[in-house]
Input
Amino acid sequence: ALVLADVQTDALQAIRDELEANGTRVLARVLDVADGSQVDALAEAADAEFGDVHLLFNNAGVGTAGLIWENSVADWQWTLGVNLWGVIHGLRAFVPRMLDAAARDPNYRAHVVNTASMAGLVNPPASGVYNVSKHAVVSLSESLYHDLGLVTDQVRCSVLCPFYVPTGISASQRNRPLELDNAAPLTRSQRVAQAMLDKAVHSGKLTAVDVARMTFKAVREGQFYIASHPQALEGVRQRAEDIVALRNPTDPLAARPGLRESLIAALRG
Output
């Protein structure tokens, strides 16, 4: 049985119909993960419909680009509302229920997967709001890992850090609430960064299905950090070494000087 939640009604209905046609029992709810009361209601509905939850995927995400001082308060509220508060609400709604189930049944097992990003481990320029939200998810997930270890061996967690995967995240503005929309037009940096994001996301070679397979493998093996593109971890190593050496941050685009120069030209031209 599966419990699915999405802010997009048409996409949710399509996947629900596909799964039900294959004989899967599905509970589907349209909701905004930034609203804790809606997530609480989902947890209650899941419990009433199917009983104990064994796998929780906090996967909702949106993208905001541009120079960090140009982002509006609404940009911060929307991005943190979905990317960070969505995960917080998911944990608060479901993890206590998982722990209750573990206390009742010594054979019960559960796993939580929080989707962060490679941008939760490094800090590429012109995407500061997104970086902040995803670094917070990594920190939250590491804290959850340690906290769970204090109280149970039956509920574990992982953090998923995908790199560029062809998904709809670069077009996430389509789902932005009207009350958090920007009245002002996009700045130059926001237009440039959005174009770069679109190109990078659509050029990704791994699919969402590929990432899902590696995620389930990691869950089975009890692996905490899940990276869709291990080669991108070189930037993580460099950042860690900078911190340990108290060295100024290495340019994340140092290995791609052409991209850096084109970005500078676009912003200064």
